[in-house]
Amino acid sequence: QVQLVESGGGLVQAGGSLRLSCAASGRTFSSYEMGWFRQAPGKEREFVAAVSSGGGSTYYEDSVKGRFTISRDNAKNTVYLQMNSLKPEDTAVYYCAASINFMYGSRWYTRKEYDYWGQGTQVTVSS
Prior knowledge:
This protein is 0% helix and 46% strand. By secondary structure, the protein is an all-beta fold. The chain is globular, with a radius of gyration of 13 Å.
C-alpha cells in the first residue's frame, strides 16, 4: 500500500504558474503508474495527466496539453505537476493517484484504474 500527500496548491492569477508535488510513502513507488486528477465544484473528478512508472511515457487531457507537465523523481518518491499559463477554468481540487494495474490505452485516463489517492490540494485561479 502507498500513502500519497499532495502540496503546492494555492491562489494564483490567470497566466501564472504553480507546481504541485505528491510525496509517496513506501519502497515500491517506482513500480506505480502515477496520475493527477482534478475536481471542480459540482463536477465529476476528471483526468489531468499521468506518467509511467519509469517516467518515459506521459499522458495529458487535451485542455492542459502544452501548459502542464507531469514528471516524477523515483529517488525522492515524488511526482510533480508543473502548471503554466493557468486559467480560471483550471480551478479545482487536484488529486494525486497511484495505480498498480497494467495500464494501456484508455486505462491511463480512467479514474477507476487508480488504486490509491491523496487528500487533494486546492488550486484557485483568479481572473
